[in-house]
From TrEMBL:
<keyword id="KW-0472">Membrane</keyword>
<feature type="transmembrane region" description="Helical">
    <location>
        <begin position="509"/>
        <end position="530"/>
    </location>
</feature>
<comment type="similarity">
    <text>Belongs to the otopetrin family.</text>
</comment>
<dbReference type="GO" id="GO:0015252">
    <property type="term" value="F:proton channel activity"/>
</dbReference>
<keyword id="KW-0375">Hydrogen ion transport</keyword>
<protein>
    <submittedName>
        <fullName>OTOP2 protein</fullName>
    </submittedName>
</protein>
<feature type="transmembrane region" description="Helical">
    <location>
        <begin position="114"/>
        <end position="138"/>
    </location>
</feature>
<feature type="transmembrane region" description="Helical">
    <location>
        <begin position="550"/>
        <end position="577"/>
    </location>
</feature>
<dbReference type="InterPro" id="IPR004878">
    <property type="entry name" value="Otopetrin"/>
</dbReference>
<feature type="transmembrane region" description="Helical">
    <location>
        <begin position="294"/>
        <end position="320"/>
    </location>
</feature>
<keyword id="KW-0812">Transmembrane</keyword>
<keyword id="KW-1133">Transmembrane helix</keyword>
<feature type="transmembrane region" description="Helical">
    <location>
        <begin position="150"/>
        <end position="169"/>
    </location>
</feature>
<keyword id="KW-1003">Cell membrane</keyword>
<feature type="transmembrane region" description="Helical">
    <location>
        <begin position="75"/>
        <end position="94"/>
    </location>
</feature>
<feature type="transmembrane region" description="Helical">
    <location>
        <begin position="340"/>
        <end position="362"/>
    </location>
</feature>
<keyword id="KW-0407">Ion channel</keyword>
């Protein structure tokens, strides 16, 4: 498929470029028939993704149980084939599609911001370390394993490297050649990342369930595992050596990073898919070059409070893991749950109040709303609202179980308060983030300062003259110093002296709020991602819903809640920079 054989829409690229030159102030227009084919190409790629996702979901869920004749190496084989196909397509895109004449006529300045690509690289590095640990673990007893279990982490490491490079250089592309092939390739990439995510979440859940089983935490979990017949991660081989145990524990601890990498990559690939065949009117699509200034124009209050919560949360996590997993005494577990709930209640309460305060400040913000088409922002809002449903579900299930159960103790009261605050904090935080994402970024500081300096000089020198020369009817002032600029009203001259200070004060407070929420969401992501999951350690919900229903609810909903926190971190970083 060469560059000369383009889709019918791409064949009009030269004529549309010519129309840009003749009509620079009008967005490019495309015939109605082309929009119909665009929707048809999108529909075909969506159908491909849906079928592959359902197939992968079926194999992944079936491979987690012993009684179903689907083995984990069947899942690894499917994922390996999908990753190899994606690698081949990415090489084709980078080497052929992106180098065709007229392939990339414009770029989406909002897609793939540097902090999102930086997070992708960070999670990709940890994913590579996880693959190294996996290779070392499976190589410890390769004689009794299928070869696909060793091939899979090798292919996954290559996939992570190739995909990270691809998204780093191409995340902003609006492709106009090979449209249908590109759409299908991007949807295949998206589906592959989601399949890897489902496999990682399932494997991690099975591992944690077996860890609870071995430590005999509760009889309910033991009966649930025995009845479900959940498959062990390595049921046929024994890992007895010290180096094998290190590899095994290491790659399971790194699973959260691989999970977040897959979701970050999926979000970036989706935006690329939306931008295929898209023309951007640069006269309405403003490009804002915002600088990330972490330690300028800030009171440091949000950073300090956020760091205090972050360090305190790490201490609570360590104590929780030690007391719950290393001790079989019920009193120790009750103390650990009390400590966990108290910390989270304080953290969620502060975050809710701060979000309410930030939303109130936005009511007085004079910046205009950004109403331009922005697929990245639309996806951010959809992911925030959708991922929050997972934690909403867990909280409402907990509320019903606690209210309907008897007797009630102090831990149950704390659990109820925790569930209610979790719902409130998610709601208020989503409102604050969505408000920030839809605000126009501030003007450049140097332009703003120079303009205020000129106005100040004009006001200081000519303020008396203005008051003498202006008629009583109240008109506008036009002087030689302001020639070539807009007419200035006398009242605006006085307001211009105080407006910058008010704006800077609001911007500073919004930055403090964003940084505090960012650090708080990091610790609330770390705690459940690395083992602090009171849903499995609190007996109220388990006794109320049964030893089969409640673990299934948590296993399905909790990954969305964990993803919500990390996505909120990325969105809050964008809000911080936009403030």
């Amino acid at each position: 498929m060469g560059c000369g054989h383009k889709d019918d829409k791409a064949s009009l690229a030269s004529s549309q470029i010519a129309s840009f030159s003749h009509q620079p102030h009008q967005p490019p227009s495309t015939p109605a028939s082309k929009e119909v084919w665009k929707k048809g190409g999108r529909m075909f790629s969506i159908l491909l993704a849906v079928h592959l996702a359902l197939l992968a979901c079926t194999l992944v869920s079936s491979g987690a149980f012993e009684k179903i004749a689907v083995h984990d190496y069947d899942v690894f084989f499917l994922l390996t084939v999908m990753m190899l196909i994606v690698i081949v397509w990415i090489i084709f895109y980078v080497a052929s599609t992106s180098r065709c004449p007229g392939a990339i006529l414009c770029k989406d300045s909002h897609a793939g911001p540097i902090w999102l690509r930086g997070g992708l690289v960070l999670f990709g590095i940890f994913s590579l370390v996880m693959d190294v640990f996996k290779i070392g673990y499976y190589s410890s007893f390769y004689s009794c394993l299928s070869a696909i279990k060793i091939i899979y982490p090798i292919v996954q490491a290559i996939f992570v490297v190739v995909q990270t490079y691809f998204l780093w250089i191409s995340a902003k592309d609006c492709v106009h050649v090979h449209l249908n092939v590109t759409r299908c390739g991007l949807m295949l990439t998206l589906t592959t990342n989601l399949a890897v995510w489902m496999s990682a979440v399932t494997d991690e859940s099975v591992h944690k369930a077996h860890s609870k089983l071995k430590k005999n935490v509760t009889e309910e979990i033991f009966r649930w595992l025995m009845k479900a017949g959940m498959r062990s991660s390595a049921e046929e081989c024994n890992c007895n050596s010290q180096i094998c145990q290190i590899f095994k524990n290491g790659y399971f601890w790194l699973y959260p990073f691989n999970i977040e990498y897959s979701l970050f990559a999926s979000a970036m690939v989706y935006v690329m898919w939306k931008n295929v065949g898209r023309f951007i009117d640069h006269h309405s699509h403003h490009i804002h070059r915002l600088k990330f200034r972490l330690f300028r124009r800030t009171f440091f209050v949000g950073i300090v409070l956020g760091l205090i919560l972050l360090v305190s949360g790490l201490g609570v996590l360590i104590l929780y893991e030690v007391q719950v997993n290393s001790s079989t005494e019920s009193s120790k577990k009750s103390q650990a749950l009390t400590m966990y709930y108290v910390f989270n209640i304080v953290c969620l309460g502060l975050m809710s109040l701060v979000c309410i305060g930030g939303s109130v400040i936005y009511r007085f913000d004079k910046r205009d709303m950004d109403r331009h088409k922005n697929p990245t922002r639309t996806l951010d809002v959809a992911l925030l609202m959708g991922a929050a449903l997972g934690q909403y579900a867990i909280s409402y299930y907990s509320i019903v179980a606690i209210v309907a159960s008897t007797p009630r103790d102090a831990v149950s009261a704390l659990n109820l308060t925790y569930a209610l605050l979790m719902i409130a904090q998610h709601t208020f935080q989503n409102i604050f983030i969505i408000e920030g994402l839809h605000r126009q970024p501030p003007k450049e500081d140097h332009k703003h300062d120079s303009h205020q300096k000129d106005v100040y000089g004009l006001t200081f020198v000519n303020i008396n003259a203005v008051s003498l020369r202006m008629p009583d009817s109240g008109g506008t002032l036009t002087t030689s110093a302001a020639s070539g600029t807009e007419a200035i009203h006398p009242s605006d001259l006085v307001q211009s002296l105080t407006a910058p200070k008010k704006m800077n004060w609001r911007r500073k407070v919004l930055r403090e709020i964003s940084m505090f929420l960012l650090l708080s969401n990091i610790i609330l992501w770390i705690m459940p991602a690395f083992g602090a999951r009171p849903q499995f350690d609190n007996d109220t919900e388990l006794n109320f819903y049964g030893d089969s229903m409640w673990p299934a609810i948590v296993d399905i909903c909790l990954p969305f809640g964990i993803f919500y926190r990390m996505h909120a971190v990325a969105s809050l970083l964008e809000v911080y920079i936009m403030s």
